[in-house]
UniProtKB/TrEMBL annotation:
Name assigned to this protein: MATE family efflux transporter
Compartments in which it is found: Cell membrane
Record's bilayer topology term: Multi-pass membrane protein
InterPro entries, A to Z: MATE_fam, MdtK-like, YsiQ
Length: 463
């Protein structure tokens, strides 16, 4: 009889997380590279893409209904040593998100005008945002498949493969930005249009590579028709995790879109400041984002293998690392805030306000890091409904109304908005901490271990 710890030793938290860290770093760097290159066009171009990014993030959340749910279910099947079930789950997830991606792409292109009118954009900003929505929004189905296959490969422990594809996609995107923004190699200077083309092309190439990669990495081969046939057993488990998990992200992104609408009332300068600040702040939580993704895979496999107590302890270990690294990054970034903003803009008002927001971020970001890690662990265990319920209550009961009250009504502007966000993150973090401590999640597993799993010594932690 095989030892259930064999796979888990090979897929330790550290081994899973470090390639994810590089992948997340590359993605964050790509976003900042886009903003940096667009700053050569104008602050208005940056502001317009900042608005469109909110819409794109909303679409990504919808795609994560399937991607996140599939990742958790596959991780539990792997921990339970049920490869056939894992492969069939992959087939259902890929087909489901392909159809959904095509639908969302069509909706965004055909309804772009009513969507953009929600933000009350000035004429120049509206034109920039519209062309970006047509090109990038029209090819969003590629991102739907990318997210799904990324999640599948990571759940199988193939985080290095995801890292390499992400690296290639980022290099292509940055090269395309350079060519079309600055007119390199005789290409036309297309500005925002060029950035959109570079994004769409790099994602399409990445999608093709991932499809080929997935076909060669499935442990148990399934018939082609099984990829195009929904099986109730697997779809139901995917949706049991995916719907509430994506619901929590959906609530967050809807609240952020609402808050962005408030910020547009403060003018293009405030909107640009928000975009620059959020891109810099993202560096504070790169490690936490990587840890949360790694935690989802690791905890999912431990729960699938029936290792509940070990999973309980490992979450706290990951959380300590995430908080420690986030605090160090937050302090360093706040200290160098003025120099960082000077990279993007020469507007002293934007630099001064953005630097102040980075100081507030020293308190805000540990709360956000805690939410990322603990919620991922809860989701991986099968306890996905509680985080979304608390998220809806706190986001819409605290951050949204307080953002308007402090930022607009009382006139504190972006500083007021940031204080509201700070309170939101910390209230939810405290609630999630006590949820994990309660161990209610230990009764939520979706998958039962196979007969090959036996009780044995605890898994040796990798330091």
């Amino acid at each position: 009889m095989k030892n259930s710890n064999d796979n888990i030793k090979q897929l330790s938290l550290f081994a899973i997380t470090w390639p994810i860290f590089i992948e997340v770093f590359l993605q964050t760097f790509l976003n900042i590279a886009d903003v940096f290159m667009l700053s050569f066009v104008s602050d208005e171009a940056v502001a317009s893409i900042g608005v469109v990014t909110q819409i794109m993030m909303f679409a990504f959340v919808l795609f994560n209904f399937t991607a996140m749910g599939a990742g958790v279910v596959i991780a539990q099947y792997i921990g339970a040593r049920r490869p056939k079930d894992a492969s069939l789950t992959i087939g259902n997830a890929v087909f489901l998100n392909l159809l959904f991606g095509i639908f969302i792409s069509a909706v965004i292109v055909f309804l772009r005008h009513p969507i953009l009118r929600l933000f009350n954009l000035e004429a120049d900003l509206y034109a920039y945002a519209e062309i970006y929505l047509i090109i990038v929004g029209g090819t969003l189905f590629t991102q739907a498949l990318i997210l799904t296959i990324f999640s599948v490969l990571q759940a199988k422990g193939m985080t290095k493969d995801v890292m390499y594809v992400s690296l290639g996609m980022n290099i292509l995107n940055i090269f395309g930005n350079y060519v079309f923004i600055f007119g390199a190699f005789g290409a036309p200077e297309l500005g925002v249009t060029g950035v959109a083309i570079a994004t769409a092309v790099s994602r399409t190439i990445a999608m093709i590579v991932l499809i080929k990669m997935l076909g060669s990495r499935i442990d148990v081969k399934v018939k082609l028709k099984e990829f195009f046939t929904f099986k109730k057993e697997y779809v139901k488990k995917i949706m049991k995790i995916g719907v509430p998990s994506a619901g929590e992200h959906l609530s967050y992104n809807l609240s952020q879109i609402t808050i962005t609408v408030f910020i547009t009332l403060l003018g293009a300068s405030a909107l640009a400041t928000r975009v620059y600040t959020m891109n810099i702040l993202n560096f504070m939580v790169i490690f936490s984002m990587a840890m949360s993704k790694g935690m989802q895979i690791y905890i999912g496999q431990l729960v699938g293998a029936g290792k509940m107590e070990y999973a309980y302890k490992e979450m706290f270990r990951g959380l300590k690392w995430a908080l420690g690294v986030t605090m160090v990054c937050a302090i360093l970034i706040a200290i160098t805030g003025e120099q960082l903003f000077s990279i993007f803009t020469s507007d002293m008002n934007i630099i001064a306000l953005g630097t102040t927001l980075l100081i507030v971020g020293i308190i805000l970001e540990p709360g956000r890091a805690s939410n990322l890690v603990i919620i991922s662990a809860l989701r991986a265990s099968g306890d996905a409904q509680f985080p979304v319920l608390m998220g809806i209550i706190v986001m819409w009961g605290v951050s949204v109304p307080l953002s308007y009250f402090l930022g607009i009504h009382l006139g504190y502007g972006l500083i007021g908005v940031w204080i509201a966000l700070l309170l939101d993150e910390w209230i939810r973090a405290i609630i999630m901490y006590f949820r994990w401590r309660s161990k209610v999640w230990q009764k939520k597993a979706l998958v039962k271990p196979s007969d090959e799993i036996v009780e044995d010594a605890p898994v040796k932690a990798v330091e």
